[in-house]
Amino acid sequence: MIFAFDFIILLFLIPAAIIALQLKDLLAAAMVFGIYSFLMCLLWAEMGAVDVAFTEAAVGAGVSAVFMIATIFNTKRNSSD
Amino acid sequence: MKKLSGIIVLIVGLLLLYGVSDPDDFPSWGTPDSPANKSPVSQYFITDTIVDTEVPNMVTAVLADYRGYDTMFETVVIFVAGLGIFSVVRVFGHSGSGRVVTADTKPDMIITNTCRLLIPVIQLFALYVLAHGHSSPGGGFQGGVILGASFILVALAWDLDTALKRFSEKQAIICAGIGILIYAGFGLASVFLGEEFLNYGIIHRILPGVDSPEMARYYGMLGVEIGVMFTVASVMFLIYGLLATRGRMTGGL
Amino acid sequence: MEEFIHSRFNYWIYVILMMIGLWGMISKNNLIKKLIGMSIFQTAIILFYVSIAVKSETANIPILPHHGHDFSPKVALAHADSPYHEEDHGDHNGHHTHVETPKVPDPDGYANPLPHVLMLTAIVVGVATLGLALAITQKIYREYGTLEEDELLEKVRADDHD
Predict the structure, then answer these.
(1) Does CATH place domain C1-53+112-162 in 1.10.287.3510?
(2) pLDDT band at residue C90 under the 50/70/90 scheme
(3) Is the pLDDT of residue A17 over 90?
(4) Which residues neighbour C109 within 8 Å (Cβ) at sequence distance 6 or greater?
């Protein structure tokens, strides 16, 4: 609800989303996706949704990123686009 | 087709931007007067949660008591996803095709000794989050994910066989099923005592030391969240084991 | 004009994030990039719903303070029966007082809890969907040896013609 804080985090979110989709190295893309998830968690905690932010912090960093890295480990690491 | 996608996304984006900026129909951001904030359901939840149940956390009360059906079927969805991944990816025996992927490093001494100190604390924190879901942010899902992540940490610091020796695949699947049975069991206990399914107010007749329907709802919610935690923790560990080893449950990350 | 931008700016950014996710799902070649686009789309929608529940700059989180003791009728009942009650009420004489009605939480002082509940379910279902999609991706890689969409289409069509 503090407008300046909202503004800065939202402006960081858009480059994070674009970069996660444009990187050719899939492992780095999974990491930037983790950064995106963490910025979302901060934004929700600042808006007053503490339960949702807690769940996203546990799920985005602990589980979602680990599943993606495990899959990338077993398939190819580089993508052509 | 790929070149057309940019145009499609641009058109949909412009339409949504127009719909969001309408000053008459769409409420502005963060006002207490929007129709979502003035709806009688939300106002009932804010003013009457503490009266019907003695739980200060409104989100946990709505999730586990007022909308208990949704949460039960969500737990079933997680269970079905775990079973689905098991059936898609699991291979038994030696399939012979493809390279066998192992990360051939021995468990490092610094990592294993640090994890030996950290993992009991993480599990205790997960149980704390579950138990304090009634008066602080937390609850069954969050505690279950943290507990599952602690098992994944055992598998990452040593190797997956060490983790499977302590919590094997068969025990994980059984625990996932037990979680849903606990949840449905609380609902059925209400049916056997004469009320509707998942109406916990009546189970104060069989719980010792509980004397009013409000406290019965309090403890009913706690029991239901324990069921959710069982399912979520075992399914998260199972999915990690299946994804990291391409279905063979040995070797891998 | 300043007021208009102030009140709509957040919604514009949410729409831009959703469109980035949608573009990633349609136009990227690699299957894992498509899954990342799907996750970006899902979290942008959850952000939209959560921002509907914001009330104002002074509203509190949806948890009653002091473990709800100021508002709970049971605590008010226990308070009314205790013998140490008379210092709170100036205008009652004697011990037998009526049960004081507890305070009711102000509906404008707490954030709206209903969208938070719906979005908790959405996050967990999103994780389950992501796990299943990654498992199917591994199976596709084991079968065809590639994760790029155009090579996959050629191989599937070649398989169909045999």
Answers:
(1) yes
(2) very low
(3) yes
(4) C58, C59, C60
